[in-house]
Amino acid sequence: MAWTALPLLWILLQGAWSKHWAAWMPQSISAFTETCVAIPCRFDFPSEIQPSAVHGIWYFNSPYPKNFPPVVLKSKTNTAHDIYMGRTKMLGDLKEKNCSIQIDRLSLDLQGKYYFRTDLGGYNQYTFSEHANLHILDEPYVLSPTMIVSASETELTCLVPDNCPDMKPSVTWIEIEGLEHHSAYARLEESDSAWTHISTLKFLPSHKNNGQRLGCKVTYPDTELEYRGYITMDVKYAPRILDINSSSETTEGTQVALVCVVDSNPLSRIMWFKEDVLLKEDYSRNLTLELEHVTFSHDGVYICAAENEHGRANKSMGLAVMYAPWKPLVNASGIAVEGESVTIMCNTQGNPEPTISIIKDKHVLSSVIFENELVLEIPAVSHEHDGEYWCTAENPYGQSNSSFNLTVVFSPLFLPESKCTVSKDTVQCMCTVKSNPDPVIVFELPDRNLTVSELEPELVHSQRSGYMVSSILTLHKDAGVPQLVLCSASNLYGHKVQELLFQDSGKLVWAKIGPVGAVVVFVILVAVGGYLIKTREKKNLPESSSFVQTDASGSHAGHSSVKKNLGKLENQFLSISERLILKKQQPSSVDSDYANIDFTKKNVKDSYTSTEELTEYAEIRVK
Ligand SMILES: *[C@@H]1O[C@H](CO)[C@@H](O)[C@H](O)[C@H]1NC(C)=O
Ligand SMILES: *[C@@H]1O[C@H](CO)[C@@H](O)[C@H](O)[C@H]1NC(C)=O
Ligand SMILES: *[C@@H]1O[C@H](CO)[C@@H](O)[C@H](O)[C@H]1NC(C)=O
Ligand SMILES: *[C@@H]1O[C@H](CO)[C@@H](O)[C@H](O)[C@H]1NC(C)=O
Ligand SMILES: *[C@@H]1O[C@H](CO)[C@@H](O)[C@H](O)[C@H]1NC(C)=O
Ligand SMILES: *[C@@H]1O[C@H](CO)[C@@H](O)[C@H](O)[C@H]1NC(C)=O
Ligand SMILES: *[C@@H]1O[C@H](CO)[C@@H](O)[C@H](O)[C@H]1NC(C)=O
Ligand SMILES: *[C@@H]1O[C@H](CO)[C@@H](O)[C@H](O)[C@H]1NC(C)=O
């Protein structure tokens, strides 16, 4: 109430006492070219003056008549300067102290200061210093807030002077396509007696409206007049990640560039993260993360994040780095005691996850696919589990492997070749044992009250090969054949005793020769026979000697023909060499004669080797 009442009271008081020369008009008033303006005006003069007639003159740009300023309108004569002729009229009644004036068909050259001078007759002429500043416009003002932020309600205003009583402006917003939730409303506002038509446009700006030009258009009904004002919007908005590489696959050693393209206003700080670790950042429109020499450690999820004062955004992508499995790590105890459980753990890493196998002696013991670990459990190890194991890992990018040795310690184990053999002069007992660690082998002959070990080298000889030990006890037959021979073997893990069985060497002849030996014998006999046929023609020899097979056990198809051929040869010839052998052996043995042809490739001298399979020889008995 107080606000509005005060000026009114002031005006009333002025009117009542009016002791001064004074005028009231808007200091500033606007209008569009080609339209009109009515400048509201009121004046007053001291009350002691009682004028018979009240006249007035409007001057342009200068208050002093002696400067001869252009006369806008002189009420007494109703005349004006050329440029104002026909364009101006007094609106108010001067007698009522109303000096309002209207100027039509405005043009830019009419912009300036307008002064009023009153003529009350005689010397009572007065030019008021109060004046109106006329602004001639050719476009409306469009005002925007200092900052337009995306998604926050924004108002633009269009200011249109409305001071022409004959022409009322019509205001519309133009080029507002794409504005979201827009609406417009208008109101009139008075300021210092000048009126402004204010049109407000409300909308929700978005990043799409950044840089958009829009405006308001003013038209006057029934005229061609049109005025347009524009602004270009600077819409601030949070970053938007426009482009980021899609998840991809690469192999170790390659070079990779990850690109993140961001749109924001103002520029954003763009960052590349890998699992919360900031790798690179910059204020930019896009940021490229270059990985020079990709390794498995680059595998993972990459995040591009961008932020400015209006918000932040992020997007992620996965980079899969493919690589051949690493050399497997084996976690296994190297030594195990027979019967214990053993766990073999094989660890590796590859992408894709590899196929892992544990291999021993070219047999796959266990295998898994698409795993980084393989565990093999052997519930109870035996001597057979001793040896070299391979852990292999393979994927499409390569293979790798490692080996490890499992040593099993076990109590001695007798092998079937342990036995005693009686030959012409000697008794040989062999005790073959598998054992880890090395066993102590002892022969026991209870009937002779004899216990011998390799500590007596003249009786016992040992040979070692890996975990195998062969101990051979050689006795002279003179003392007779022992009835019972025991072999005892012991190491840290056990003690075992086994009776060694006897085997007659004579019965084994053909078994020892075997099929291969038989063929060799056949070839030799044919060769010998061939020689005999040739020499027989020249020399006659006694018929007594003959070759006879001793045992049928080794015979097969080939033998009948051998026998036939030999039969023909029997009564005929013998080579000199055979004769020599026969002569030499005749005195020592009567009922059984031996032709001993040794085909041994190696020159084995040890007597016991005759019972070993290593020795290849043929024994041909002559009756
Ligand atoms: C002056 O005259 C004009 C035109 O008749 C009128 O519109 C206006 O209200 C008057 N002003 C005053 C202060 O009386
Ligand atoms: C990421 O995208 C950029 C551009 O589009 C391309 O040059 C680059 O090779 C892409 N990187 C990967 C790993 O795909
Ligand atoms: C990234 O920005 C640079 C400079 O700002 C520009 O030269 C390059 O073309 C942009 N790359 C993309 C993919 O936008
Ligand atoms: C990515 O955005 C999500 C939600 O929009 C947010 O929880 C996460 O922290 C952001 N990550 C980074 C690295 O900025
Ligand atoms: C091997 O495996 C055992 C048990 O499984 C574990 O205690 C040990 O730490 C492993 N050693 C290595 C080198 O991985
Ligand atoms: C172990 O790896 C080597 C070298 O790659 C390869 O030559 C060998 O055949 C592999 N061994 C096995 C048992 O896979
Ligand atoms: C395992 O033993 C073999 C010989 O038996 C040897 O050549 C190899 O190097 C050993 N391996 C390891 C891993 O010790
Ligand atoms: C063997 O020796 C024991 C005592 O050392 C003795 O009692 C026994 O009579 C002996 N036996 C033979 C057959 O010599």
Automatic annotation (TrEMBL):
It comes from the Eukaryota. Residues 140-232, 239-320, 328-407 form the Ig-like domain. Keywords: Cell adhesion, Disulfide bond, Lectin, Membrane, Signal, Transmembrane, Transmembrane helix. Residues 1-18 form the signal peptide. Its main location: membrane. One of its GO terms (biological process) is cell adhesion. It is a single-pass type I membrane protein. One of its GO terms (molecular function) is carbohydrate binding. One of its GO terms (cellular component) is plasma membrane. Belongs to the immunoglobulin superfamily. SIGLEC (sialic acid binding Ig-like lectin) family. This is Myelin associated glycoprotein. It comes from Leptobrachium leishanense. The lineage of its organism: Eukaryota, Metazoa, Chordata, Craniata, Vertebrata.
